[in-house]
């Protein structure tokens, strides 16, 4: 339980910190613009995003535990894992692209929203937070399935979010001094490894359901050295999905995703030619 809790705690903390950072920027702009009247609608948008993310978590858990079983459960978990990989991959490159400009972009969008009314401010806050919330729920759900636990990952995620809220409150006073480039780089690398593990889990699900070949082609088996129930075994499975044994296709998927996405993530952005500058 401890390792599964810690793995989900890291996910909740990471996504919660990014959401808290965005909210801190928005609140700072409102306060400095002397538009405190729009702070309440902003928090209403944040609350709506949190409720939607919680609803998704409830639906996923209910379907996985009460509606489907057997092959259908394997397929359901595999498909939700693919959705999580797609969303996380998009978030990784959004962070890379927006690290240097997120403050100015949010300020510009909030200024436009203020001109449209308080409902637009609530909508902006909702959209800004819901991306992190949905990503977090999908990641924790996939991690819980990989670790074959439910309560510990849920508690870990909630504790991580609570910690992020406290840190976000502390960041509020120093939001202008946060090095977003470095923050997004390190969290992006963590996300790549987590997403690689989820992609591997999706392949495992499709193999178990008989939709992909190679379920008996074992790439490695270190069950004697890596105890699945140990704290380190659970931690590795719940974060990057390193398991005591894996098929060749699972390993190839993990390595291929991590290598390609890390290469693209760290590749220098192309410079514009003089004709386009």
TrEMBL record:
Subcellular localization(s) per the UniProt record: Membrane
Membrane topology: Multi-pass membrane protein
Keywords recorded for this protein, A-Z: Membrane, Transmembrane, Transmembrane helix
TM region(s), chain numbering: 6-30, 42-63, 75-93, 113-131, 151-171, 183-203, 246-266
Main location: membrane
InterPro entries: FTR1/Fip1/EfeU (IPR004923)
Family, as annotated: Belongs to the oxidase-dependent Fe transporter (OFeT) (TC 9.A.10.1) family.
Name of the featured protein: FTR1 family protein
């Amino acid at each position: 339980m401890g390792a599964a809790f810690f793995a989900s705690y890291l996910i909740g903390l990471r996504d919660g910190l990014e959401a808290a950072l965005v909210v801190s920027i928005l609140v700072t702009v409102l306060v400095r613009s002397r538009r405190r009247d729009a702070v309440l609608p902003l928090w209403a948008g944040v609350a709506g995003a949190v409720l939607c993310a919680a609803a998704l978590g409830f639906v996923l858990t209910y379907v996985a535990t009460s509606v489907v079983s057997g092959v259908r459960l394997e397929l359901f978990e595999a498909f939700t894992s693919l959705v999580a990989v797609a969303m996380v991959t998009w978030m990784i490159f959004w962070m890379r692209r927006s690290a240097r400009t997120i403050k100015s972009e949010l300020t510009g969008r909030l200024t436009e929203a203020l001109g449209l009314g308080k409902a637009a401010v609530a909508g902006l806050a909702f959209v800004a937070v819901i991306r992190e919330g949905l990503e977090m729920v999908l990641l924790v759900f996939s991690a819980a399935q990989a670790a074959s636990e439910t309560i510990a990952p849920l508690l870990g995620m909630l504790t991580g979010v609570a910690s992020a809220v406290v840190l976000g409150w502390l960041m509020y006073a120093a939001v202008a001094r946060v090095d977003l480039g470095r923050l997004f780089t390190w969290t992006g690398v963590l996300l790549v490894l987590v997403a690689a593990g989820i992609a591997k889990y999706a392949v495992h699900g499709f193999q178990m359901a008989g939709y992909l070949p190679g379920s008996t082609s074992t790439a490695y088996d270190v069950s004697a050295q890596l105890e699945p129930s140990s704290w380190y075994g659970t931690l590795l499975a719940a974060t990057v999905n390193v398991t005591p044994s894996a098929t060749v296709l699972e390993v190839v998927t993990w390595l291929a995703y991590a290598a390609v996405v890390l290469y693209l993530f760290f590749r220098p952005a192309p410079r514009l030619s003089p004709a386009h500058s």
